[in-house]
Write a structure and sequence with these properties.
The protein is α+β, with helices and mostly antiparallel strands and 486 residues long. It has three domains: 2-166, Beta Polymerase, domain 2; 257-427, Hypothetical protein af1432; 441-485, no CATH class. Helices cover 53% and strands 7% of the residues. The strands form three sheets. A six-stranded mixed β-sheet has the order 3-4-5-2-1-8. A two-stranded antiparallel ribbon has the order 6-7. A two-stranded parallel ribbon has the order 9-10. Helix 13 (241-249) packs antiparallel against helix 16 (278-290) and helix 17 crosses helix 23 (389-401). The radius of gyration is 28 Å and the shape is globular.
């Protein structure tokens, strides 16, 4: 039903535009991931519509009849209409490299355009010219609760994408074109995790042997391009571990993510970790984190899942003969930073994840040790402002669920401990951030001028406040000023 609703919404919004394109002599095709998601019965997003048989000027003129037109990629021939999600593009041929020479070819056949895509499941199209005026089809889609657009609409599938999807198989459309863009390697990785599909033997061989540098300049892939694919893996996949396990299978994990490869074979005490080594534990942890239902934003989810990926990176350097890894949460901080700096320049994310790694053991330790509320308040202060107690609690949940000795799926356990932890944070009034300070700078300005000493006294007052539960600013003022003069 999600697929039907979003497909009908798309048709409703683009029908007048498609008719204008058709009147001008062009053909509008829905292409790429939109068609794939339609077949998978998933909501359609990021609509890509490719227009054939029109020049760039003709397409712009047709689009301009329906709103303000923005050319978002002049050399790529990509337009947007203000207020609409769809991208309207022209068929093109690209040379190799990060900054390819682009030749727009309005006369290109849809079969040739599909051949230039990465995988067969992304190399399908729907002729929107035919669909928007097919009143019988539209009536069927609107009136049938069980209709599947992919079964009703004619899918242009020149390279067997439908058959591959039914077999849960990833297959390259054109092997020569595939290896020209090394980013496609990482797209395969995230598609494995997102869709639970397996590359065929030929695609595995391509990915195991292809060069991951820009073919034109020999430069490594741009950091932000890899980060975008990793975000899709961690945010959109119910099992992001599949992508990393695939890297192990094709023997490229050590090359791309050596910090994660180092986890393989690092033993853990079986009474605490019956699932196996640290790599297995980490894979189960990222899957557990990815399946949490209570995230309030993608940024929040990315932080927690990324933290699950990094939380035990310090174990290879700290694990002793008994499998104990004392201090791994501290040793893992620089390793985490090294890994993340290769993946992203989002400094706020890096800072948040390193804090999560540093303190990931504490939530359930607090419960086991029956720690006082002031311990919760101190932890909330250390985590702020990038991380909240709820975030660190969710990471602890994923960490504790990653203990399945009979398979790869994380166990549905530890929810009671998370609930207990959250109840404690509520009692301490620090669930969403540290306790607000009672004594403020303005309370001291009659005695202490602005400067380092004022800041020091405010910090001292705040620690007294959370340690002793004092809520009277005058009492806190008296205490810190007494200390100052003694």
């Amino acid at each position: 039903m999600q697929s039907i609703e979003s497909f009908l919404a798309l048709l409703e919004s683009v029908t007048p535009i498609v008719r204008s394109i058709k009147h001008a002599g062009g053909i509008a095709y829905l292409v790429g991931g939109s068609v794939r998601d339609l077949i998978l019965n998933q909501p359609l997003k990021d609509f890509d519509i490719e227009v054939h048989h029109l020049t760039q000027e003709q397409l712009e003129a047709a689009l301009a009849k329906h709103g303000s037109v923005m050319l978002i990629g002049k050399k790529f021939g990509v337009f947007k209409i203000a207020g609409m999600e769809a991208d309207w593009s022209l068929p093109r041929k690209d040379s190799i490299g990060r900054k390819p020479t682009v030749a727009i070819d309005p006369s290109m056949t849809i079969q040739e355009a599909c051949r230039r895509r990465d995988l067969t499941m992304n190399a399908m199209a729907i002729n929107l010219n035919d669909v928007v005026d097919n009143h019988v089809l539209l009536s069927q889609l609107k009136n049938s609760a069980t209709a599947e657009p992919a079964a009703a609409v004619a899918i242009i599938d020149p390279y067997g994408g439908l058959q591959d999807m039914a077999a849960k198989r990833l297959r390259a459309v054109d092997e020569t074109l595939f290896i020209q863009d090394p980013l496609r390697f990482f797209r395969v990785m995230q598609f494995i995790g997102r869709f639970g599909m397996e590359p065929d033997a030929a695609l595995n061989h391509l990915c195991a042997t292809m060069d991951l540098h820009d073919q034109a300049t020999n430069a490594p892939l741009a950091q932000e391009r890899i980060h975008e694919e990793m975000k899709k893996l961690l945010l959109k996949s119910p099992s992001p571990s599949y992508g990393f396990r695939w890297l192990v299978a094709i023997n490229r994990l050590n090359e791309i993510f050596p910090e994660i490869h180092a986890l393989i074979g690092v033993n853990q005490p079986p009474q605490h970790h019956p699932e196996g080594d640290v790599f297995e534990h980490t894979m189960q942890a990222i899957d557990a984190a990815a399946r949490i239902k209570t995230f309030q934003s993608n940024d929040e989810k990315l932080m927690v899942v990324m933290s699950a990926l990094c939380h035990d990176l310090g174990k290879p350097a700290t694990t002793d003969e008994q499998g104990r890894a004392i201090g791994h949460e501290t040793v893992g901080i620089p390793i985490t930073k090294t890994l993340l700096h290769r993946m992203t320049n989002d400094h706020a994310l890096i800072k948040a994840v390193t804090k999560m790694v540093r303190y990931h053991l504490l939530p359930f330790i607090f419960l086991d040790q029956k720690s006082s509320l002031k311990a919760y308040k101190r932890l909330a202060l250390k985590l702020a402002p990038e991380v909240t107690m709820r975030h660190i609690g969710l990471l602890s949940l994923a960490d504790n669920q990653a203990c399945n000795p009979k398979g790869h799926a994380p166990l549905e356990v530890a929810y009671d401990k998370l609930e207990q932890f959250m109840q404690k944070t509520e009692q301490a009034t620090v669930t969403h951030g540290p306790e607000a300070p009672v004594l403020l700078g303005r309370h001291l300005l009659d005695t202490v001028p602005p400067g380092p000493e004022l800041g020091k006294l405010l910090k001292e007052a705040y620690l007294i406040q959370i340690d002793e539960g004092i809520t009277d600013w005058e009492e806190l003022k008296r205490r810190v000023l007494t200390t100052r003069t003694s």
